[in-house]
Structure formats: C-alpha cells, structure tokens
Amino acid sequence: MTGRPRLLFVGAGPRAAMLLERLLARTDESTQLDIDLVDPYPPGAGRIWRHAQSPLLKLNSMTRDVTVFTDDSCTIDGPVRPGPSLSEWLEQWRDGALPDVVLDELSAAEAEVLEPTGFPTRRLHSHYLDWFFRRTIADAPAGVRIRLHTDTVTRVRPATRGRHAAALAGGGEIVVDAVVYCFGHTERDLDPASAALVAASTRFGLQYVPPAFTADADLSHLAEGGDVIVRGMGLAAVDLVVLLTQGRGGRFDRDAEGALRYRASGREPRLHLGSRRGVPYRSKVTSSLQGDPPQRDVLTSTTVAALVDAEDPIDFERDVWPLIAGELLHGHYRELFTGHPGRVSGTWEQFREVLGAHAWDDSALHAAVAAVVPDPLDRFDVAAFDRPFAGVVFTDADDVQRRVRVHITEDLQLRTTQERSPAQGVFIAALLSFMALAEIPKEKWNARSRAHTLPVRWHTFFSYLASGPPPHRLEELLALADAGVVRFIGPDIAVSAGPGGFVATGPQAAGATVAGALVDAWLPAADAAISTDPALRELATVHGSGLRIADADYDGLLGRVRVTDEGRVVRQDDSAHDALFAVGPFTSQTEAGAFTRPRADSLSLRQNDRVAGAVAAHLGVVVPVVW
Asked: CA-based angle 213:218:221, to the nearest 5?
C-alpha cells in the first residue's frame, strides 16, 4: 500500500468509537492515516444511546458496571489504555475535572446525585459516550486525520488498485483502502407474521405496533383508556410501559407504609402484558458475593478444548446447554454454602460432589438439595427459573394476576437483598459461561447452533437471566398492576385479529383478552439481508455470505453476515475479504454488546482489539512497542 492509507467506518456509535480507540492505540507520531466516519446519528452515542430521546429511559446497568475502556484484566494484543468507568467519570465531573463536558439541565441534576449503584438515563450516558469519542479523536497523533460525515453510506463498490468507493446519500464518494461496518441495531423489513398483522389491522380498523426500538416507535395513536395487548416482557416492554405511563403524566409516590403507588394521569391506556414465559425478565442483581470467588467448574477450558477437538460438530442443546446449566448450579450453591453456611447442612466440598454426581435436571438432585437446604428460596432449579409457569394451569384471570405478582415480588427479594446473594453467583456463572462459549471457533458449531440456537435461544435466556431491568422498574410494574393500568395475561399467548379486535389467548388459562391495539414489544432480530440500511443490506447480499435457517420454533429467519475471528467479511466462496471488516449484532461473531463491565476481560473489548489489529495490519499502521 502506497501513500496515506484511508479507512472508512460505516457507523460512528459506541462500537465504532471503541474500535477506533483500539486502532489509534496502535499508532504513534510517525503514523500517517486518514479515517472517515459516516453516521446520520451523533458520534459516540449513535442511534440507540443518542441524547434526543425521553429522559425517562434508562440503562439496565449500574453506573459502576459501565465502561468503554480497556484495563489490566483484558487479554488483548493491543496496548491497554485505561480510563474512567461511567461512575468514575461522574465523580470527575462533580469534582470539576472535566471542563469540556457540558451537561443539559436534567442530566446535570441526575449526575449530581447518582450513586455507583444507580441506573443512569440514556441521555446522561450519551454525554459519557460523546466525551469518549471526542477524547479518542483528540488523543490521535498529528499524522492521523479524522473526518466525521453526518450522512449515510448507500453503497460500497470495488475501485482501482484494491480500493473501495463508498457513495453517500448526501452526494459524493469516499475512496478508501479498507471499510469497517460498525452497525448496532437497525430497522428491518417486517417478517411475514408482522406484515400479516399490519394488513389485518388495516382491514379491521385496529392499531398495531410491530417490533421496533421502543424509543422510536410511534405510540401516539394508542388511545387513552383503550385496551392494548403487549406481547413481550423484556427491556423493550419495560420501556414501552414507562413511555405510556410516566410518559403520559403519571407518577409514582410512596405511601405512609413505604409502598410504591401509581398516580394515574388518566391519559394511559390499559396494558395487557404476556410473553413466552409470562413473566418479566429477571431483575438486575444488586447484591455482592460474600463467599468463595467464582470459577468455571463445569464448562472449563479443558472441557471446551475437548468439545473443539471432537470430530462431530458441536450442538448447543445436546453438548453445551447441560454444561451451562451445571455451571449455574455451581455458581448458586458455591455462594450459598460458602457465603451463608448457617443456612445449609454440610460443606461446599461435600455438596460439590453431589452436583458432580447428578445431571442438572435429575430429579434425584432435587431431593438431594432439599435434604441439605431447608429454605425453598435458597434452592435453585434451572428449569423452573427458565420457565416459572411450566405445567401451571391457571384457574382464572385473577389467578394469573396473583401468581405473576408473587413471582415478581419473590424475584425482587432474591435479586436485590444481600441475604440472597446466591443470585449474584448465578449471574457471574452465566457471564463466565458466555465467555467460555466465545472460546469455541464458529466453524465447530453445527448450522442450527450457529444460525439459531446460539443467537436466539441462548442469547434470549442469557438476557432473561443477566440483562433484565433495574429493580425499581419491577416495583413500578407491581404498582401499575395495583392501579389497574397493567394486567398480566400469562405465558405462551397467541394473538389473532378479527372484526372485534385483537384476541389474545393462552393454553394455560381460560378466557381471552380482546383489545383494539397490539404492540409487539421486542427489538427485531438482527438480519442484515433485510435491514433498511442500504450499506448493511448490500454487505449481506453482495459482498458477504450469511447464515440463514428456518425453524418451526422461531417465527422468521435469522440472517447474519459471516466474518472471521478478526472481523473480515467472508465471501460466498468462503474466502475472506482483505479490506472489508464488520463488527456488531448482524455478524456471525458472538454478540457481546456495545460497551462492557470494568475489570471483566470483556468479550467486546477482546473482539474490538482483534479486529483493530487486523485493520492495522492491512493498512500498515505502526504498532508501538510497549515496555
């Protein structure tokens, strides 16, 4: 490569900013490099975390658990360049150490009082991401020129001498030596089921909101006092409830006994919530471990190596899920036996042998647990945790309300009180399992696992366990149920549309819920081939190859762009592009999120560093020697 190399980032959100930092960490004062970033949304924050959204919407992570910086825990090839977590950054701002950070009035008021264990708003987080992006650019060597384009890439085509030409929606073209696609979640074409519901709502005069990023969904036509069926009880549904209650003027107060009460504005619709499980995602865990340090007991490096070395392709359900379930059991009971020995009979060493002698779903294990763990709330059943209402037959609608309310109340007790810290043990075990799976090369999985079970079933379970809402959101949900604004309609609901409205029914409860509106409250699955972003769609259909599989248990198709471990886009003939790279949820890499927890040797930072190293090598960028 001759002359100044030029690199294009398609996207400038958190993933791009963190990858840019990893690339610039490899430069020095001799580096000559041009970098262009193209994104219609604000750099650093991007679309999802941009400042221009409701101040009611929050992260589901505590401020102490958010960082965009590498640290000494990171097993990476590039230089470690530490920086403040979101919590530490807020401390610096309060101390006046960040004169270039100007917060809006609401964010400033929040920043003044937010504790490390508090859950920040997305608007406040946008300031942190903006500051990180500006700092990253400011720290670039003089020979690195960075240009930001508030625009959209419409296509990327091969040019002369191995370069690529990117066309912009606003006109003009950028010719570069390498392209990195850094998308987060984009809009996409409707799946067949959603398209059919759109057609039915038009035909019968109903209101339907298809899957979307909740902050961007049009909710204005959901009528005051009208009945709305909501399918989904994850983070998108939590945001929806917030926007349709507090967002319409309602408020929460504590009564004289300390109970949370909702004061309705009268502008709210009546929300009928159901989902596959029939319960919300589990609350974020706020307790701390007080027993022995966590470790991988079942899904160990040796076990992973044996799976990789086996001749047959790895099937997630058959080969890996039992190991994950065993890991979760070890995480829970290690913390229970070593952190709360007065609540059990025997020692952890003794009970560890019991766990090793039984399969995770062996009924004999349940009996062995009951013999040494007297309090049922101290016991952990993986299957019951995953599907709390499996096999339950509800007597009537009131029974559904009662059981869901009991479930939420119990979940809050288990996940937010220090005496129930084994929940933190389960959470850490899930994180360790997530990282262990990243050690398995993509090509070792069978097709179904790569295209469906890992990105859909495992990711959904992991999100349900580890990425639920802040505890106060579940407390608010209970208050809304008390106020009659929210009703629970149970698990495995099916919805049909007709002249009388949308009708929701479930196999475990008699009766039906009828409403004039339906919201499918989940983020649509990442599918590059049907993305509405032209560059991402072109990447999937022209430049790369994808993973797609139809499945009776999954309503639709999942399409992801195949990439190597270094993020190189894989062509249809299975060869890897030299100059096209991609990171994000639309790729075949394990989805690791845009940012991460401090001191966790996070997968997202390791992925970014590998991709940055490959991009640097392709461009001939200097890699400093760190002594």
From this structure: 145
Q: Say if residue 502 is in the same domain as residue 576.
A: no
Domain residues for the domain of 65 are 6-188+525-619
Q: Two tokens at 371?
A: 């013999």
User: DSSP characters for 211-260?
Assistant: S--GGGS--TTS-TT-EEEEE--SHHHHHHHHHHTGGGT-EEEE-TTS-E
pTM: 0.94
The number of angstroms, rounded, from the C-alpha of 556 to the middle of its chain's C-alpha atoms is 20
Q: Where are the alpha helices (DSSP H) in 45-101?
A: 86-94
Average pLDDT over residues 588-596: 82
- Is the Cβ–Cβ distance between 525 and 558 less than 8 Å? yes
- Could you please report the per-residue DSSP string of 545-572? -EE--EETTEEEE--EE-B-TT-EEE-T
pLDDT of residue 555: 38
Q: Which residue has the tokens 């992570």?
A: 61
Q: Is residue 28 part of a domain?
A: yes
| Per-residue DSSP letter, 267 | -
Q: H or E stretch including 614?
A: helix 603-619
Domain membership of residue 89 (yes or no) is yes
Summarised one tens digit per residue, pLDDT across range 488-518 is 999 999 999 999 999 999 999 989 999 999 9
Residues 491 and 410 in one domain: no
